[in-house]
Specification:
single chain; 462 residues; alpha/beta; Rossmann fold; Helicase, Ruva Protein, domain 3; 4 domains; 19 helices; extended
């Protein structure tokens, strides 16, 4: 399971240091001097002697910046400003005035002006003002674009995988994203648990709040407690100031606790209090601190078994497991492999600058039948290696990792009868391993006991 990476900035944003500028000025000398100067600065410039001409030009072309005199024949600068912003809301409008009162500046800003300049104009000041406003506009466009890209990247509809199993995951993500309930993600390493956690966050009402991921297995217990809950000055040697933990830092955002089963009992107790009471006690603090974080936890272990064997608190387990989402391993959704291969291959080809069109039939058969114990992460690594080693237009078996042996449980024959027999055999063998009693196995399989014995004989099951 994966999503598209955030791409490079669009050229329209990258090239925003120069601009298309409209000068609206009734004095010919000022108009021509400004136009000549700004063209020398690299801008594309148009001029208008009055408001009506300016608005006609604005309807024909998009302008990044408009320098508009406040005192114009006919329609004044404020009138031009209001009508211009209705035509082009994202245009930067700077009013120019020789009558620079506080009242006129305030009124201009109320009507949507971005800034104003005083006459007599100093050309260097005009250039600096435009550079500043273009930088502001670039930052604004970047923020808009990155927010849109981020939302698209973690929109669960854009996550690669169209199998029934993944559609069920997407449906659960859709349902829980709008709430602030605690979610437990269960799945093997490499199945995309953090990706789904981010998808839940970025499809929630708090998408503009922080998302912080903490790997509980990668941090020693004392440091984990400090990172989660923070500490007060003097709490221990070297604690020379108050430091807030991620529970406070994330605000109303999402705190993703990966490998939650590795958390030690003492930290589990503090986490339980944070979830139940919405408060934490920083190390060395005498009074609790209120927190609002939404918790999404993840594990590749069987938490119910961890509880039964005394390694995980039962009360915390039930608090975390309000809604659980099981992420299927790749071997259980092999129908997604061609789609994943196409997407991942395109990304590595682009990064390596190669001209590889795809994967040949023999290599695809290997990719479809491999056990993928490392799931999508392993598939991604295999394709990256293949792209680096390949010298041809197609990935071949020789480009794939040599230890990528097919899974014996997978049958890729095109003959339907053979494929059905292979599936029946493997399925019955799996049920018999978990239910050695033939009567119970027949009940689970939905077969009469005599039919089960016949199948065992026909399929050569031992």
């Amino acid at each position: 399971m994966t999503t598209a990476p955030v791409c490079n900035l669009p050229k329209a944003i990258e090239s925003s240091q120069t601009a298309r500028i409209l000068i609206v000025e009734d004095e010919p000398l000022i108009r021509s001097t400004l136009a000549e100067f700004l063209e020398q600065e690299g801008h594309a410039v148009e001029v208008a002697p009055d408001g009506e001409t300016a608005l006609h030009l604005a309807e024909q072309h998009h302008f990044d910046v408009v320098l508009c005199d406040l005192q114009l024949p006919g329609m004044d600068g404020v009138g031009v400003l209001e009508r211009l912003l209705r035509i082009s809301p994202d245009t930067i409008v700077v009013l120019v005035t020789a009558y620079g009162t506080v009242e006129s500046a305030v009124e201009a800003f109320k009507r949507g002006a971005h800034d104003y300049l005083m006459k007599p104009l100093l050309l260097d000041e005009v250039a600096a003002k435009i550079r500043h406003l273009l930088a502001y506009r670039r930052l604004h466009l970047e923020n808009q674009w990155l927010r849109r890209e981020l939302h698209q990247q973690f929109d669960f509809r854009s996550i690669v995988g169209s199998s029934v199993a993944m559609r069920q995951v997407f449906e659960l993500v859709r349902k829980v994203a709008g709430s602030r309930t605690t979610v437990l993600l269960i799945g093997e390493s490499g199945t995309g648990k953090e990706l789904i956690a981010r998808a839940i966050h970025h499809n929630s009402p708090e998408r503009d709040e922080r998302f912080i991921a903490v790997n509980c297995a990668a941090i020693p217990e004392d440091l984990l407690e400090n990172q989660l809950f923070g500490h007060r000055k003097g709490a221990y040697t070297g604690a020379d100031r108050d430091v807030e933990g991620v529970f406070q830092h994330v605000g109303r955002g999402t705190l993703f606790l990966d490998e939650i089963a590795e958390m030690k009992p003492g930290t589990q107790a503090k986490l339980l209090r944070a979830i139940e009471q919405k408060e934490i006690l920083p190390v060395g603090a005498s009074a609790p601190v209120q927190v609002q974080a939404r918790i999404i936890a993840a594990t590749n272990k069987d938490l119910a078994r961890e509880v039964a064997e005394g390694r995980f608190r039962e009360d915390l387990y039930y608090r975390l497991n309000v809604v659980s989402i099981h992420l299927p391993p790749l071997r259980e959704r092999r129908e997604d492999i061609p789609e994943l291969v196409e997407f991942l291959l395109a990304r590595h080809v682009r990064n390596q600058g190669k001209k590889i069109r795809g994967v040949d039939h023999a290599a695809m058969q290997i990719l479809l039948s491999a056990p993928w114990r490392g799931n999508v992460r392993e598939l991604d690594n295999a394709l990256q290696r293949a792209v680096i080693l390949s010298d041809g237009p197609l990935i071949t078996p020789a480009d794939l990792p040599p230890d990528l042996a097919p899974d014996p449980d997978v049958c890729l024959t095109d003959d339907l009868r053979t494929a059905v027999s292979h599936f029946e055999k493997r399925h019955i063998e799996r049920v018999l391993r978990t239910s050695p009693d033939k009567k119970e196995a027949a009940r689970r399989l939905g077969l009469a006991l005599s039919s089960l014995y016949r199948k065992i004989e026909e399929l050569g099951i031992r």
